[in-house]
């Protein structure tokens, strides 16, 4: 973001994260990771976006400050705002039954801006005959809203 921001100073990144479990939200707020969790993060990103102490990496305050946290049960409660990108991995399309998957997918799709992307886990799939979202051929797990 700090490379992009100077080129587009009028753009601001808003990130909302949600989970039903307050403990998980507290953990996410701390944004501390062992080196092994960041093995796929490029070294220059690690250096510029994280602060390393005692072998742990914490996301720098300038990035943590962009994130809002919301406790919500995704089965019944999706945020009112619209998003360009929704990441929904390792919950809905792995653990929920198909009617519930369809119900949550409909709610998430409504919250996606036209042209926006829904990203699911690479081993997950959307329910058969899903309409209104098409796979992005260039990126595994990305579905674009028409
Ligand atoms: C397997 S973890 C996946 C976390 C993350 N998406 C990832 O891929 O690393 C599932 C998460 O879903 C949360 N969760 C379980 N049921 C939920 C619900 N009904 N609504 C929202 N979050 C839920 C759990 O607390 C847990 O943090």
Secondary-structure blueprint of this entry?
Blueprint: E1 15-19, H1 22-30, E2 32-34, H2 43-49, E3 50-53, E4 56-59, H3 61-64, E5 67-71, E6 83-87, H4 92-95, H5 98-111, E7 112-119, E8 133-135, E9 142-145
Parallel strand pairs: 1-5, 6-7
Antiparallel strand pairs: 2-4, 3-4, 7-9, 8-9
Bound molecules: S-adenosylmethionine.
3D architecture notes:
There is one protein chain. By secondary structure, this protein is an alpha/beta fold. The chain folds into 2 domains: 15-67, no CATH class; 73-145, Rossmann fold. It has helices at residues 22-30, 43-49, 61-64, 92-95, 98-111, and strands at 15-19, 32-34, 50-53, 56-59, 67-71, 83-87, 112-119, 133-135, 142-145. The strands form 3 sheets. Strands 6-7-9-8 form a 4-stranded mixed β-sheet. Strands 2-4-3 form a 3-stranded antiparallel β-sheet. It is globular. The site of S-adenosylmethionine (SAM) has 10 residues, from loops.
Keywords:
146 residues, Rossmann fold, 2 domains, 4-stranded mixed beta sheet, 5 helices, 9 strands, binds S-adenosylmethionine
- Run of helices and strands: EHEHEEHEEHHEEE
Going by CATH, the homologous superfamily of the largest domain would be: Vaccinia Virus protein VP39
Distance between the termini: 27 Å
Low-confidence stretches: none
Q: Please tell me how large the radius of gyration is.
A: 17 Å
Strand segment tally? 9
What share of the residues lie within helices? 25-40%
**In total, how many domains does the architecture comprise?**
2
CATH architecture type of the largest domain: 3-Layer(aba) Sandwich
The multimeric state of the shown protein is single chain
The biggest sheet amounts to: 4 strands, mixed
CATH classification, class level of the largest domain: Alpha Beta
Strand content: 25-35%
Structural class, by secondary structure, is alpha/beta
| Large-scale geometry | globular
Q: What is the spatial order of strands in the main beta sheet?
A: 6-7-9-8
Ligands bound to this protein structure: S-adenosylmethionine
**DSSP summary: helix tally:** 5
Task: Please state the average pLDDT score.
Answer: 94
* CATH fold name of the largest domain: Rossmann fold
């Amino acid at each position: 973001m700090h490379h992009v921001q100077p080129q587009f100073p009028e753009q601001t990144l808003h990130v909302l994260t949600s989970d039903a479990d307050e403990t998980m939200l507290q953990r996410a707020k701390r944004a501390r990771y062992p080196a092994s969790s960041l093995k796929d993060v490029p070294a220059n990103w690690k250096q510029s976006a994280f602060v390393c102490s005692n072998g742990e990496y914490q996301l720098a305050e300038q990035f943590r400050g962009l994130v809002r946290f919301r406790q919500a049960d995704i089965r019944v409660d999706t945020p009112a705002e619209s998003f360009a990108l929704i990441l929904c991995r390792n919950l809905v399309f792995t653990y929920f039954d198909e009617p519930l998957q369809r119900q949550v997918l409909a709610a998430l799709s409504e919250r996606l801006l036209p042209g926006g992307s829904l990203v699911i886990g690479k081993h997950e799939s959307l329910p058969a005959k899903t309409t209104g979202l098409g796979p992005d051929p260039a990126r595994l797990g990305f579905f674009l809203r028409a």
